[in-house]
Write a structure and sequence with these properties.
The protein is mainly alpha-helical and 455 residues long. The protein is 63% helix and 1% strand. The two termini are 42 Å apart.
Length: 455
């Protein structure tokens, strides 16, 4: 009976479609037409690449340009686009275009994923998502091609524009974007694309409407007001970017001596603070950064992007609620307050749940990879690998895609562990918890309560 209830849950639908998309992508990537001549690709590496692309992570076990042909790169790009828009979004849009009925349950499920208010016009909103996405990606590609003075071909510009907006982090260059580390214009284009893809479709549309109303003197009486949700997302994103930029700049370019000039170092710090949250690109070699910088980046990757966006992580709204909850506890408040509005107890409980489950998943994954990669090696011979493994685990779970360079050398067991992590991180533990909650029987009674000594 529980199995039958599980199979009919709308929340299970994106999990199944996501998995089938990854499997189909893996099969296509193993075809000879997808590979360069005399370039072997194992099933594990194909599955890893397809998962990384569909989950818009960016971790790579093989060289994308050297291993895959133009057809293979196109398949990867298609998987990135699907993952960026979201299987749930694309499926609902397909149902709308074919004039199929979308049930109220599906409507609410999609609404909770993309919007705070589930009462919205599904078809119109999803069309706007697709149109906005294609327009932004095309403009980004045109700018990258123009600003690179032809060094980046238009095909390459399209690939990187889609990869940036979808927060995938896949690059056709071995050094990611290091060759443009001091090119301000290229960096700004990537930062804008990553930011737009990471704040969520709802916030992006509402912010654009707000900006238009602010600069239109004819509509001064009908100016659009940003919602509380959008303000929380934008403010928290701003704090994370500025704080991350200063932290990386201080720990990497002031404490440690680099050959970069101060303006170039500040630009590199700014770029990494933006991209390491979910995008996966880098303009400086990650493996050469200090341990403190890597810890800062791990914290940013764990937080991730906004709900309903192309990014992963526990989401910036979760971390904002948790900090607000701790602050309220210190002040002795009964409510968790952000700005002038109190967060509901259900929201606080969800934030605590996703933080706790994510922490548990990461701890288990770190222990698993330590066992598979360094289990038979003494500590004196494996110094530094614990930090690298932890960095890799958080990067996979947060779908950030940044690596210190150990991904290709992982064992088969380690690669499959990261595949599971990327899958869980992209769909989010809250979605899996929601599926389990739908098949659980609710207790219709209360148990006796008692205080327990804590701390």
């Amino acid at each position: 009976m529980k199995l039958k209830r599980l199979l009919y849950q709308p929340l299970l639908f994106p999990i199944i479609i996501f998995g089938l998309t990854i499997l189909a992508g893996s099969l296509l990537l193993t075809l000879p037409i997808s590979l360069n001549s005399n370039t072997p690709l194992s099933w594990t590496d194909a599955l890893f690449t397809a998962t990384s692309a569909t989950c818009v992570t960016g971790l790579a076990v093989v060289d994308t340009m050297g291993t895959f042909s133009g057809i293979g790169q196109l398949i990867i790009l298609f998987l990135i686009q699907i993952g960026g828009l979201g299987i749930m979004t694309l499926t609902s849009l397909a149902l709308y275009l074919f004039r199929q009925k979308v049930t109220l349950t599906d409507r609410i499920a999609v609404g909770q994923n993309l919007l705070q208010d589930p009462r919205f016009r599904l078809g119109r909103f999803l069309l706007r998502i697709v149109i906005w996405t294609f327009i932004i990606e095309f403009i980004g590609a045109a700018l990258l091609y123009w600003l690179s003075d032809g060094e980046m071909s238009f095909i390459s510009a399209i690939f990187h524009s889609i990869s940036a907006f979808c927060n995938a982090g896949f690059s056709l260059y071995n050094d990611s974007l290091s060759q443009w580390s001091d090119t301000l214009a290229i960096n700004i284009v990537f930062i804008i694309l990553i930011t737009l893809g990471g704040i969520g479709f709802f916030v992006m549309v509402e912010t654009s409407e707000w900006l238009v109303s602010q600069f239109n003197p004819k509509n001064h009486k009908k100016r659009v007001q940003l919602s509380w949700y959008s303000k929380v997302v934008l403010q928290t994103s701003f704090y994370l970017v500025i704080g991350g930029t200063l932290a990386i700049f201080i720990t990497e370019f002031i404490i440690q001596t680099h050959s970069l000039s101060w303006p170039a170092a500040l630009l590199a710090s700014f770029f990494q603070a933006v991209t390491c949250r979910t995008a996966g690109f880098n303009t400086i070699p990650i493996g050469e950064l200090t341990n403190v910088t890597l810890l800062i980046m791990m914290a940013l990757m764990f937080v991730g992007a906004a709900p309903g966006s192309c990014g992963g992580g526990i989401k910036i709204t979760s971390i904002r609620v948790l900090f607000a909850f701790l602050y309220s506890e210190l002040k002795g408040r009964e409510q968790t307050v952000i700005g002038k509005i109190a967060v509901t107890r259900d929201s606080v409980r969800r934030a605590l749940s996703i933080f706790s489950f994510s922490a548990i998943i990461i701890i288990i994954a770190v222990l698993t990879l330590c066992l598979s990669e360094t289990g038979g090696i003494a500590h004196s011979e494996s110094r530094g690998q614990f930090l690298e493994i932890s960095f890799e685990v958080i990067s996979a779970y947060g779908t950030a895609g940044i690596s210190t360079g150990i991904t290709p050398s992982l064992s088969i067991f380690g690669k499959y562990a990261l595949i599971i992590l990327m899958f869980l991180g992209r769909l989010g533990p809250l979605l899996f918890i929601g599926v389990l909650h739908t098949i659980q029987s609710r207790e219709l009674f209360s148990r006796p309560e008692s205080d327990l000594l804590i701390g």
